[in-house]
Every structure is written in structure tokens, then in C-alpha cells.
Amino acid sequence: MELPMVWRQWLARHDRIADALPAVPLVVIAAAATAAGKDGWQEPRWHEVVWTALSCMPLAFRSRWPLGVALFTLAGDLTLMAVASHIAPTPAASLIALYTLAALGSRRTAWAVGLAAAVAITGVFAATHAESVVAGASLLRLDFAIAATALGRAVRSRRENLAAARARVERAERMQEVEARRRVTEERVRIARDLHDVVAHHITLVNAQAGVAHHLMRANPDHAYEALAHIKENSRAALDELRATVGLLRQPDDGPGSRAPIPRLADLDSLVGGFEASGLSVSVTHTGGPSPLAPATDLTAYRIIQEALTNTHKHASVSRASVVLKYGVHSLRVTVTDDGRPGAPKGAGGGHGLIGMHERATAIGGTVTAGPRPEGGFQVVAELPLSLSSATA
């Protein structure tokens, strides 16, 4: 880290020191001004140096009480100008206080105090030096006070503009994310409606024609055969429209692997073999009597196991994992654990893997819980229904 950045961070943590820093060069300049004479350098007039230091002390609190500090330093500088008229001191402490007031306070207060200070400084200087108010030296001090106030207001405006720009950028990013999520949700709803309409329409026709074929199978085989032909045509049309609708979800760069047969738990051995080839030892245990699974449950269980083992292999840095499939009367419990050390970081990277598991399980009426185990390692437990209810389907 660069030294200027470290210095700025340190000053940001020590407000009083940062506020008082400008007083140091002012006191040094005051000492040098009182020590410089026509005949060369001499001993500084310490009472004037002390008075300058006293007038600068309130600067340590200028960011906390800018108005009070501006008035106090102005009074001190005017007094110093009156008692030390022979050195024509510049009210530097007041200028710093006026700048701070303009940068931190309201515009009306800053300009009211700034103009009043400019008039007071000019009047006191002209009175103590027997000069005209419109003389060059007097107007110079008037310009100093107005310039300090204008500079403070300019800095204040710049900070406000930068803050407003940052707020606009953050708001635009948030709105962009919200809009993206809204469009994704709308697209999902639209596709779901399309799928529902297509499948419901054709399945309704197939169901009606199947009833006709069943009724006419013995009495009128010719009409029954015709009804079966209609069933074949409607089922093929339903598949074609379903394929076209779901094809909208495919990516343009999907490879041949994306059109492979849907994986099932029967393919678990090949999945485990792939992980073992990469160095992760996986044991698979079946408990309970195997029951027929709904295709959606079969696919969901496979995908959850695949995602959990992938997260274990990529993020947990362990060597062993276990998969337990427990078949119940109405549900299938899938448990995936690894042998990580207690307190070792585990999980699904940025959390997208766990979110995907939850979405898959929730879609078929199941649940997923995941988290570290007290004895060490990470565990994913999924409860999935063996068959889908009509409401879930």
C-alpha cells in the first residue's frame, strides 16, 4: 500500500489531528514573520507567536463546530491585527475556518459569515494601518475572505455532485438487476403457461380419444383404430410443441451433450466413477426397499447428488464422500456428506449450487438442508417425494 494512502487513512481515523494540521505552518510562519526585521533576523516576538497559536487552537474542532470555530478564530485574528499592526498579519486561521464553514455548512450561513468577515477584516486592517478601505492591501484581505468562502462552496458542490453521481450509478445497477430478475420471472411464467396450454390441450384430446377407442374396441374396431390414429397424431403434436417451447430455454452454444438422455439414479455408478477418477472416493449406500420414482424425482435426486459432489470436490478439498439413499413409504431421503476438518471452509462457492438444489427440490414438493457438521465436513440432506401429487405436477 502506498504511503500517501496510508497517511490519508490514518488521518481519516483521527479527525482532531487532521483538523489541527493547518495550524502548524501558520504558527511557524508567524514566528518567522516576527523574527524577520530590517537589520536581519532577530529573536521572535513570542507573545505574538503565542497569540497566533491560541487563535489557531479552535481549528482542531473546525469539522465538528464549523460556525463556532469561524467566529472564534475571526475574533482572535481581528484582535491580533489590532495589537500587531506593525507586521500586517494575514488572518490565515480565519480563512481556514471560513473555508471549512463553507464546505460543511449551509450556503446562506457560509456566505453571510464570509461577507461579514471580509468587511470586518478589511475595516480593522484599514483602521490599524491608516489606509483607505479601497486601498490595494485592504482589498487584498477582502479578496482573501471571499475567495476562502467561494473555494469551500466549490468543494462542497463537487462532493455533492460526486455523491449524487455515485448514488445514480448504484441506483441504476440495482434497477438493472431488478429489471433482469423481473424479465427472467416473466419469461419463466410465459413458458410455464405455454407448456401448460400445449400439454393440457393435447392430453385432453388424447384422453377423450382413448376413451372412444376403449368404448369402440369391440363394437366397432374400425372406428377404434381411427381413434388410436388420432391419439398418435395428437401425442406427436404435443411432443413437437413441447420440444419447440422448451427449446427456447436452450443456449445457442449447447453441445451434443446437452441433448443426451435424461440422467437417473440408475446412472449413479458412472457419475461416481467420474469423481473417483479425479481423486474423490465416493461410497454409495441404499437403505429401505427400492420404490418406483416419478421421473422428476429421479432426475432431481441425481442432480442434487451431482451438485453436492461437485461442490465437495471443488470447494471442500477432501478425499472421501458418502451418498446414502434411504427409501421410505412416501419419500426418498438423499444424504451427501464429506470428511472435511471441523471449522474448515465448505460450501458451494458463491452459494449458487445450494440455491439450485433448493429450487429443484421445491419444484417437486421436496426440501433441502445443507450445512457443516459438528464433527467436521459438510452435509446435504434432501427429502423428495416418491410420486408427485396433482397439485405439485
From TrEMBL:
Q: Write out the coiled-coil annotation as residue ranges.
A: 155-195
- Any transmembrane segments, and where? 20-37, 79-102, 109-127
Looking at the record, the residues that make up the Histidine kinase/HSP90-like ATPase domain are 300-387
Q: What name does UniProt use for this protein? A: histidine kinase
Query: What keywords are assigned to this protein?
Result: ATP-binding, Coiled coil, Kinase, Membrane, Nucleotide-binding, Phosphoprotein, Transferase, Transmembrane, Transmembrane helix, Two-component regulatory system
Source species, please?
Streptomyces iakyrus
The DUF7134 domain is annotated at 8-159
- Which residues constitute the signal peptide according to the record? none
Q: What is its EC number?
A: 2.7.13.3
The record places domain Signal transduction histidine kinase subgroup 3 dimerisation and phosphoacceptor at 187-253
Say if the entry is tagged with keyword Kinase. yes
* Stored InterPro entries: DUF7134 (IPR055558), HATPase_C_sf (IPR036890), HATPase_dom (IPR003594), Sensor_HK_TwoCompSys (IPR050482), Sig_transdc_His_kin_sub3_dim/P (IPR011712)
What is the catalytic activity of this protein? ATP + protein L-histidine = ADP + protein N-phospho-L-histidine
Q: Which GO terms describe its molecular function?
A: kinase activity
